[in-house]
Amino acid sequence: EMPCTASISVPQAYRERGAKIPKTEQRGITLVQLSTLADLVQRVLARVELGDAFNHDERIDWDTVNLYHMNTHFVKPLTARFKCSFVEVVAQEAQTPIWFVSHWWGTPFQ
Question: Which superkingdom is the protein from (predicted)?
Answer without folding.
Answer: Eukaryota
